[in-house]
Specification:
Distance between the termini: 75 Å
Strand order of the largest sheet: 3-2-1-4-5-6
Largest sheet: 6 strands, parallel
Number of strands: 6
Order of helices and strands: HHHHHHHHHHHEHHEHEHEHEEH
Shape: elongated
Helix content: 55-70%
Strand content: 5-15%
Length: 485
């Protein structure tokens, strides 16, 4: 066995090992208890794949390529910049960071396809249908995969950038105009048509036009989507990125990219379906409908909002036996997760039964509330999903809602004209007493009034999340005569 053959075998085996570590790491990330270990395993896999890419001759198309080396070094340098930035990003900005990082993956996949197509378009030699040396000659199968990966990756990239801008407050929540969906469809069909042409004839001007239209479609597809749908959109683009990476892995004949991309794509699509199910909406309704963009409700809300001061709210908690806390994006904005956990520890010290209720789409990304509570040190066994916790609201003495809005709005069950009708919600209204911590009287992302806030058993504690939690802690201590149990 020659040295080059041996090195090629070791490279492929290393890529396979890296892919296995990616899969095991992803499995570990399925539980908060083992998530850190999963990240380490996946990180080791990435280190292996990166080192092998530098060292193995097969990754250079059989020969040393100085331009590729420079690009790889630049990419690694950029990754360090992003790593430093990621460590400084506050937990409240995590959704937009996830969106932009996911977009980078899609953009990388599109760039791989673009490089393969441009090299093939400029290649003047004889094309062997079974050869891919140096990626200069693409047979038709690889051309199809390169173009599909590029199309999906470009859409994921530009769409994720718009999602980042929306989540970061740099763009309005929604942007619509008459005939938008028809124009979007025409742009997509034009891009797909150019892609089909490139399968048979690789021309550089057509390649440029193909990418321009694909990037434009990603922008136009994301602009009309409201903030309430962002968790679903982020997970959908995550699936797109994984699929694009898998396709380009075939183009590069890289086993780790094929396996990792397929796993990420499958996991992202499954998560997207689960998120859409949690909202009781089809994925097409997320992409082409009107949720999170405001809407009127035909059902008139009776009653009025009833404010409560911190001493009275603390009295409700002092007398309660069972308390359920419902966090939402407002808690993230106020960075109140630590203070809320401190309040809950005060209640637990007084022998109260305390739990946290998490709606699947609470926040701006999948698992957003779980991340915040884990960062605050809340034990995992105190955090319950919607389906598990909903039956317990009927026996709950006090439910505290901090920053959640649409996911606790009972009109989702009662008003067929409401934009959120049919969306499963947390049944907070069934609690004996509800305390809503809110800075003002504004509506949620769906742009409609929340009937819960007008209910007879609901009281509004108007304050910043941290300020409200601090006041409740102080008042609880005061009720104990300044001490506590």
């Amino acid at each position: 066995m020659s040295v080059s053959v041996l090195l090629d075998f070791l490279a492929k085996a290393s890529y396979f090992a890296a892919a296995v570590l990616f899969i095991l790491g992803l499995m570990k990330m399925g539980s908060p208890v083992s998530a850190r270990q999963g990240i380490r395993w996946a990180g080791v896999g990435m280190v292996i794949a990166t080192v092998v890419t530098f060292a193995a001759p097969s990754t250079w198309g059989g020969h040393f390529d100085q331009i590729n080396l420079i690009l790889m070094v630049v990419a690694i340098a950029l990754s360090w910049v992003f790593w430093i930035w990621g460590k400084k990003v506050p937990i409240t900005d995590m959704p937009q960071m996830v969106a932009i990082f996911n977009g980078m993956g899609g953009g990388s996949a599109a760039a791989i396809g673009a490089a393969a197509m441009i090299q093939a378009a400029s290649f003047t030699g004889t094309c062997d249908a079974h050869a891919l040396e140096g990626h200069q000659c693409l047979d038709r199968t690889f051309a199809v995969l390169a173009i599909l990966g590029s199309l999906i990756g470009a859409i994921s990239f530009s769409g994720s950038v718009i999602a980042w801008a929306k989540l970061d407050g740099r763009l309005d929540k929604r942007f619509t105009f008459p005939g938008q969906q028809v124009i979007n469809l025409l742009v997509f069909l034009a891009s797909a048509g150019l892609g089909a042409y490139l399968v048979f004839q690789l021309d550089i001007p057509i390649v440029i036009a193909f990418f321009a239209l694909a990037l434009l479609f990603g922008v136009m597809m994301t602009l009309p989507i409201g903030g309430a749908d962002m968790p679903v959109v982020i997970s959908l683009y995550n699936a797109f990125t994984g699929l694009a990476v898998a396709f380009e892995g075939y183009v590069l004949q890289n086993e780790s990219l094929i396996i990792a991309g397929t796993v990420v794509g499958a996991a992202g699509m499954l998560l997207t379906q689960l998120m859409a199910k949690a909202m009781n909406r089809p994925i097409s309704g997320v992409l082409f409908s009107n949720f999170g963009g405001g809407g009127a409700s035909a059902e008139e809300i009776k009653g009025s909002m009833k404010p409560v001061e911190a001493p009275d709210a603390a009295s409700f908690l002092y007398l309660a036996e069972r308390v359920i806390v419902v966090p939402g994006y407002g808690m993230a904005v106020a960075q109140a997760q630590h203070k809320m956990w401190e309040l809950c520890k005060q209640l637990i010290a007084r022998d109260k039964d305390v739990k946290f209720a998490i709606h699947p789409v609470a926040g701006r990304m999948p698992g957003h509330m779980n991340v915040l509570l884990a960062e605050a040190g809340v034990p995992y066994d105190l955090i319950a999903d919607m389906d598990d916790i909903n039956p317990e609201f009927k026996t709950c003495d006090v439910a505290i809602v901090i920053g959640a809005n649409d996911v606790v709005n009972p009109v989702a069950k009662t008003d067929k004209s409401s934009p959120i009708y049919g969306m499963p919600i947390l049944d907070v209204i069934d609690a004996k007493q509800v305390i809503v911590i809110k800075r003002g009287k504004g509506t949620g992302f769906a742009g409609i009034e929340n009937a819960l806030f007008y209910a007879e058993n609901c009281r509004m504690l108007y304050a910043d999340g941290q300020e409200a939690a601090n006041k409740l802690i102080s008042e609880l201590k005061a009720l104990d005569g300044g001490g506590g149990h």
